[in-house]
């Protein structure tokens, strides 16, 4: 902390001995040591708290970034699913002019699109399992 050499410490000791005397100098040195110890502990405690706050802030920023990415991905998937729900599959037996006069509510379209996506996903692993068993 301070650039104090042996000579400076010797001069401080001699001046302290002359000013305080041999009876009070050890008590004053002990008291000074205790104060310096308290100051060092206080400073190190503050440093730890500052470091903890900085780490917490970094974690908050990372969490916010991850939350934004998750929200963007969720919005993208939601738009994709809604896009699938907006374009119902065409039945080749029915001409397009004979479609229902009113479309179902958005919730129903979303549920239908999710059901179709689940059916498609459920069909795909079965096809992979058949390919794996045929390859063996």
TrEMBL record:
Belongs to the TatB family. One of its GO terms (molecular function) is protein transmembrane transporter activity. NCBIfam families: tatB (TIGR01410). Its main location: membrane. It is a single-pass membrane protein. The keyword Amino-acid biosynthesis does not apply. Residues 66-97, 108-136 have a biased composition (Basic and acidic residues). It is found in: Cell membrane; Membrane. It comes from Halomonas nitroreducens. The Tat system comprises two distinct complexes: a TatABC complex, containing multiple copies of TatA, TatB and TatC subunits, and a separate TatA complex, containing only TatA subunits. Substrates initially bind to the TatABC complex, which probably triggers association of the separate TatA complex to form the active translocon. Keywords: Cell membrane, Membrane, Protein transport, Translocation, Transmembrane, Transmembrane helix, Transport. The gene is tatB. GO terms for biological process: protein transport by the Tat complex. It holds the Pfam family TatA_B_E. One of its GO terms (cellular component) is TAT protein transport complex. The keyword Cell membrane applies. The chain crosses the membrane at residues 6-22. This is Sec-independent protein translocase protein TatB. Residues 66-136 are annotated as: Disordered. Part of the twin-arginine translocation (Tat) system that transports large folded proteins containing a characteristic twin-arginine motif in their signal peptide across membranes. Together with TatC, TatB is part of a receptor directly interacting with Tat signal peptides. TatB may form an oligomeric binding site that transiently accommodates folded Tat precursor proteins before their translocation.
